[in-house]
Design goal:
Helix content of chain B: 10-25%
CATH topology of the largest domain in chain A: Rossmann fold
Largest interface: A-B, 69 and 42 residues
CATH architecture of the largest domain in chain B: 3-Layer(aba) Sandwich
Strand order of the largest sheet of chain B: 17-16-18-19-25-24-23-21
CATH superfamily of the largest domain in chain B: Class I glutamine amidotransferase (GATase) domain
Shape of chain A: elongated
Structural class of chain A: alpha/beta
Distance between the termini of chain A: 28 Å
Structural class of chain B: alpha+beta
Number of helices of chain A: 9
Helix content of chain A: 25-40%
Oligomer: heterodimer
Strand content of chain A: 25-35%
Largest sheet of chain A: 6 strands, mixed
Number of domains of chain B: 5
Radius of gyration of chain A: 23 Å
Chain lengths: 295, 594
């Protein structure tokens, strides 16, 4: 996929009117358009404190001094930039679906990244598969859009077994700035996704999970006597795919979804599940708004 | 059940193979999927339900085996034999004789027979023939579809004549249907001789009936003596009034006591002329035989004698009930005026159509030649069954000489070395030729002579005025090409002349007839035939002789098996499809943290 065709120009124009939402104040590096936990030179009043030598005279509230005969300075919220970390699963299982789950995930990541960069947020990206991780460190400004798209467009699915925990662990050591962590994955990790997300929460990231599945993962198309091979682990499962087997699969699938939703709620993680048959444009412009990621 | 292709059952060996394959299971196809995570969890679930799954799989296997078995049965082309006549050819024989008019079953035996025939036709699909078993059995409908047969049955009506059921059944059995064999069903009140493939529906319950079996009229003075015979066909004694009328005028009334299965006669003198009618005033099952007719003072046949006079002949003719007109001129008028022309030793001439008694002469247009004279012939043989020779004994007759006749047709009524008396009927001519002149024999002196003369004139004139129902009527056309018949109901019909004769094959209605033709009118009456009054049903529905081979038809039922096999497959497929999960997870699902 070439960067020019990643997202259509008309679609990009629609994205320019959107912003990424963070549920809590985040601490950035430069002044931006986000409310920072640090109090500084913003325009939004935050609090008072006693005057200390060296404080800017301009922030002394003379009205209070006239009434209390004590010096107080006004504190304002600092507006800083938001760190957006895009974690895209590029494992072998992401190659399934029409379009493939990986292509679908890259389009979503590109759109979120574009929204962030156009709103002066810092956007970084990670393509993780097995133990190999490709990292694009967070960067700021509309000028970084092309580099982000180029990075994402170069993604290829691969690796034997993907490991979310290893990917998160690797990434937290690369960046000290926390922020919004958008994980786009099918969550079909042989070792599970729970530890990886817990680690992200531990490091005070704000995870948002976009669970991408293909239709044949919801309702398998295979029938009859089959020896199913896992694309990543190569572990075979022999099964007679008939009505009862499909019923059992449906029960397992529903239980898996329910467990995932429960886990995310318990750990204050936003969660959105979709399939590749939903147009990516609809997902971004409609469902990610509903999910609270985009405003 | 039979199978057209029994070899197809070898295919049943495939069923164990099917089961074996099912047990061994087909080789699993290797499928690469994104993740087996969910399948591993599903497999654990399946292991918990292993016994239930095995039962479900068994149901599918049973359905598949049933479908395969039924398909193999269909390939073997099973056939079943179903009872005829529903699908095979059917011949309906409907008895239309006089006894079927009996009303012991409502409305009458004949109507019940038609109703039952129609009911049978409703169940019939194959070709149907309808035979009307009347006095002259006939095919009312050749093999046709049952709808046409219904219409023909509706048009059938009974006659006043006794039927000929045996002949009708013989006619039915001789028929060859378009395909296969036909079964014959006879609707009658009396079963005939049992035959293979013929079954009977016997209709009727009662035997009580009184009927007039004969009515004789003999000239007596200015009137006539009328004798009526009445028979009780029932098994209980009866008292019945009888009334005689002459042209509507009551002339005699009696009450008759008649023992079971016996008959009595009543007679009386009737003065005047006209139609005499006898009627039994009784309410029995059959009304047709309660009435009979006679003619009092019927016109006598006119006899013209041409040729040599003979005193003995004149005396004999004068004694007979004929109008005797002697003449010597052979003129067309003389021929036209006579019912019978006697030619005594005239020169052979060609005679026009008519009735002739040739005495010692012949005619040139008869199929007969005369070659010389034989001296002293003797009568060696006669034909006593012929009406002309009935009660005529010629053994004592002496003949001096006679013509040597060489007939080419006709019937020799008496002969010695050569034919001596010859009868002929054809080409409009009815003739009796006596090969010897009366002057050269003592025949006129014999008792046989007036008997012979009476028989010959009666046969030649055709002067019968009383017939029984079912009798044929034959009368000389006298040169006419056709005649008009007025039957007892007043209906008129044209009777064409055939070979100089007016022929009515069967007189089917009881009553008074009139025949207008050749400028003359002939009146005659038809009375019920005695045998038609015996209405007691004979036989029962159990009188059925049906050969197994003719009473069934073969029906192929392989389409049924094939259809059921397909239905089994559909059910199997439905069971499979019904168990497929229906998932609607196409919309994204979002969970927002609280």
């Amino acid at each position: 996929m070439v960067p020019e065709t990643l997202l259509a120009p008309e679609f990009l124009r629609k994205l320019e009117t959107l912003t990424l939402r963070s549920r809590r104040a985040v601490r950035g590096k430069l002044r931006g358009e986000r409310r920072s936990p640090a109090l500084g030179r913003g325009v939004e009043f935050a609090d008072y404190r006693s005057y200390h030598p060296g404080d800017d005279y301009r922030h002394i509230d003379w009205n209070i001094y006239s009434r209390l005969n004590r010096l107080f300075v006004k504190l304002f919220s600092e507006e800083e930039d938001l760190y957006v970390h895009l974690l895209v699963d590029a494992s072998r299982s992401m190659a399934w679906g029409v379009p493939s789950k990986l292509d679908y995930a890259i389009r979503i990541a590109a759109a979120i990244g574009y929204i962030g960069l156009t709103n002066l947020d810092r956007v970084g990206a990670v393509l993780f598969a097995a133990r190999s991780h490709e990292v694009l460190m967070p960067r700021r400004g509309r000028g970084q859009v092309f580099s982000l798209f180029k990075f994402l467009a170069a993604a290829r699915s691969g690796g034997r077994t993907s490991d979310l925990h290893a990917a998160v662990q690797h990434y937290v050591h690369l960046t000290k700035r926390r922020g919004l962590l958008v994980l786009i994955s099918d969550l079909l990790f042989p070792g599970g996704y729970e530890e990886g997300l817990k680690l992200a929460r531990y490091h005070r990231f704000e995870p948002f999970v976009i669970h991408v599945l293909s239709d044949d993962e919801l309702v398998p198309t295979v029938r009859g006597e089959a020896r199913l091979l896992d694309a990543e682990s190569r572990i075979p499962v022999e099964v007679s795919v008939d009505g009862p087997a499909l019923d059992a699969y449906a029960r397992a699938r529903d239980a898996y979804f329910a467990a995932t939703e429960t886990f995310c709620q318990r750990h204050h993680i936003d969660y959105l599940r979709t399939t590749t048959s939903i147009p990516s444009d609809d997902l971004i412009l409609r469902y990610l708004r509903i999910g609270g990621l985009i405003g | 059940m039979k199978f057209a292709v029994p070899g197809a059952f070898w295919l049943l060996l495939a069923l164990p193979v099917l089961v074996l394959l099912y047990l061994l299971r087909a080789r699993r196809q290797e499928v690469l999927i994104s993740s087996t995570l969910l399948w591993q969890r599903a497999r654990e679930d399946l292991l918990l339900r292993f016994s239930i799954r095995r039962l479900e799989r068994s149901l599918l296997l049973v359905l598949q085996l049933l479908a395969a078995g039924l398909a193999i049965l269909a390939v073997a082309q099973p056939q079943v034999a179903l009872p005829s006549p529903r699908g095979g050819a059917l011949i309906l024989v409907v008895d239309s004789s006089v006894s079927m008019q009996a009303t012991d079953v409502s409305p009458s035996r004949f109507e019940v027979a038609k109703r039952e025939a129609r009911a049978l036709l409703d169940e019939t699909a194959g070709p149907v023939m309808v035979i009307n078993a009347g006095r002259i059995p006939s095919i009312a409908l050749p093999f046709a579809d049952p709808v046409q047969a219904q219409q023909v049955v509706d048009r059938l009506h009974p006659t006043d004549a006794p039927g000929r059921l045996e002949e009708a059944i013989g006619l039915a059995v001789a028929q060859q249907p378009p395909q296969g064999l036909a079964s014959v069903v006879v609707f009658t009140d009396r079963a005939a001789t049992p035959r293979p493939g013929v079954s009977y529906r016997i209709i009727g319950t009662a035997a009580r009936n009184l009927g007039i079996t004969a009515l004789h009229v003999e000239p007596s003075g200015n009137g006539a003596r009328v004798t009526v015979q009445v028979r009780n066909w029932g098994d209980s004694p009866e008292r019945v009034p009888i009334v005689l009328t002459l042209e509507g005028r009551r002339v005699l009334e009696r009450v008759l006591s008649i023992a079971p299965f016996s008959q009595v006669a009543v007679n009386g003198i009737v003065a005047g002329r006209g139609i005499v009618r006898a009627e039994l005033q009784v309410d029995d099952a059959l009304a047709v035989d309660d009435v009979a007719y006679g003619i009092v003072g019927a016109p006598l046949p006119r006899v013209v004698l041409i040729g040599e006079e003979n005193r003995l002949l004149d005396q004999a003719l004068a004694a007979l009930p004929v109008q005797y007109v002697p003449t010597r001129q052979v003129t067309p008028e003389a021929f036209a005026a006579a019912d019978v022309v006697i030619l005594n030793q005239t020169e052979p001439v060609a005679v026009p159509p008519g009735n002739y008694l040739f005495l010692g002469t012949t005619a040139t247009n008869l199929p007969l030649t005369s070659n010389g004279v034989r001296r002293g012939p003797q009568v060696l043989r006669g034909s006593p069954t012929h009406p002309v020779m009935r009660y005529v004994d010629l053994t004592q007759v002496q003949i001096q000489d006679a013509m040597v006749l060489r007939p080419q047709g006709g019937e020799v009524l008496a002969e010695g070395e050569d034919p001596l008396i010859w009868g002929y009927e054809g080409a409009g001519i009815r003739a009796v030729v006596v090969a010897f002149p009366l002057e050269r024999t003592d025949f006129p002196l014999q008792v046989a002579f007036p008997i012979f003369l009476s028989n010959a004139l009666r046969w030649l004139a055709g002067t019968d005025t009383v017939y029984h129902a079912g009798d044929p009527y034959v009368h000389s056309a006298r040169g006419a090409t056709e005649a008009t018949l007025v039957d007892p109901t007043g209906a008129r019909s044209i009777v064409p002349a055939t070979g100089g004769r007016l022929v009515i094959p069967s007189l089917e209605k009881v009553g008074v007839y009139m025949l207008h033709g050749g400028g003359r009118t002939y009146t005659f009456v038809v009375n019920p035939a005695p045998e038609g009054s015996a209405i007691a049903p004979v036989g029962s529905d159990q009188v059925v002789a049906r050969s197994p081979g003719r009473s069934t038809r073969t029906v192929r039922i392989w389409p049924v098996f094939l259809g059921v096999a397909l239905a089994m497959l559909l059910v199997e497929w439905g069971v499979w499809v019904h168990r497929l999960p229906r998932t609607d997870l196409g919309r994204p699902r979002a969970v927002r943290r609280s």
